[in-house]
Write a structure and sequence with these properties.
about 375 residues, alpha/beta, Aspartate Aminotransferase, domain 1, seven-stranded mixed sheet, about 15% strand, globular
């Protein structure tokens, strides 16, 4: 594609010397797992998020699972979540032994609907897993209030929302625990898989630290059932330490791109994303009933696109054998038929954005 959906080489090229030096530092140290680079990154990222603790793990799906296990979610209980976020949350819930309780979404933000959550939770609901989808924070205050009334803890899925902020608080700092992905395409991406759990609760932090390494309190001594091998390696931690100071600038550039798109596409018959400090524009996702036609035409024009995500979790083939409590999901299903992701990454040029705008406008017209 002349204009790709993402281009990781562009972003890393400017940091080649710093990244190489960080990797060389790890290589010469001889310490590759759970060492000083990870400890330093955990401290730095906790400070960035405005929380007390960060626990580095292998990936975000593990982070979500370990967060639920730290909260002692039990088999047979339900975890409220959305069905439009790529099945990652569902996978973590099932791996923790619980069942997903799917909550419909708000048609404008495409995040969890507070009204739908209030209508669905019950005495079997053990936790609420809130996804900040596409980089846009969910209505976390309302969701926390509803969950709090029922005595249910909230876990934030922040895989798309590094640095998103509302009322001076970062995503990940609102719930009992926040879970992050550092997959290479994320706003803060490693050079491979990596993730983290953040919290200000000392007890939960200690449980997650134990669970990420077999449940050990000390070497070869296990005290928590459900532990696993999920450790961020030193190389990824060192790379993330290089990149973290650039995150605010990268997020600002993503917002600029989103504003340029929204201004250029304002007269089209599309549903455009909301914007603000609570949106770090991880993905710029439009909606159209003519999604497939637009995508095909953009492909022919050499412009990369993607669909995040085409099949809601409850309609996935793999879910047919699970007795999930049925809930109304009409908005979720409609949005899945309409969403289309346009290129949005910090190194995208203003000229490239304008070319995408012209192409979409011509097709929409």
């Amino acid at each position: 594609m002349r204009i790709p959906i993402n281009d990781l080489k562009r972003g890393d090229a400017a940091l080649t010397d710093e990244i190489s030096a960080a990797m060389e530092r790890v290589l010469t140290s001889g310490w590759y797992v759970l060492g000083p680079e990870l400890e330093a990154f955990e401290t730095e990222f906790a400070r960035y998020c405005g929380v007390e603790y960060c626990v580095g793990v292998a990936n975000c799906t593990d982070a979500l699972e370990l967060a639920l296990r730290a909260l002692e979610v039990a088999p047979g209980q339900e975890v409220a979540t959305v069905a439009n976020a790529g099945i990652y949350g569902t996978a973590a819930i099932l791996r923790a032994g619980a069942m997903p309780l799917y909550i419909d979404i708000d048609p404008r933000s495409m995040n969890m609907s507070p009204e739908a959550l209030r209508a669905a939770i019950s005495s079997t609901t053990a936790a609420v897993l809130v996804t900040h989808l596409y980089g846009r924070m969910a209505p976390i205050e309302e969701l926390l209030a509803i969950a709090g009334e029922a005595g249910i803890p909230v876990v934030e899925d922040c895989a798309h929302s590094h640095g998103a902020e509302r009322n001076g608080r970062q995503s990940g700092s609102w719930g009992a625990l926040g879970c992050f992905s550092f997959y290479p395409t994320k706003n803060l991406g490693a050079l491979g898989d990596a993730g983290a759990v953040v919290t200000s609760d000392d007890s939960l932090a200690r449980r997650v630290r134990a669970l990420r390494q077999y449940g050990w309190t000390s070497k070869y001594q296990s005290w928590i059932v459900g532990g696993k091998n999920s450790r961020m390696d030193e190389l990824q931690a060192a790379v993330l330490r290089v990149k973290l100071p650039h995150l605010c600038c990268w997020n600002a550039r993503r917002r600029e791109i989103a504003r340029q798109y929204s201004a250029g596409l304002a007269n089209c018959s599309l549903t455009l994303p909301l914007q603000g400090l609570d949106d770090v524009a991880h993905l710029y996702v439009i909606r159209s009933a003519r999604r497939d036609r637009i995508r095909e035409a953009l492909c022919l024009a050499g412009i990369g696109t993607d669909v995040h995500y085409p099949i809601p979790d409850h309609l996935q083939e793999c879910m047919k054998g699970f007795a999930v409590r049925p809930t109304p999901l009409s908005v979720t299903e409609r949005c899945a038929r309409e969403v289309l992701t346009l290129p949005c990454f910090p190194e995208l040029t203003a000229g490239e954005v304008e070319e995408v705008v012209r192409a979409v406008s011509a097709i929409d017209g």
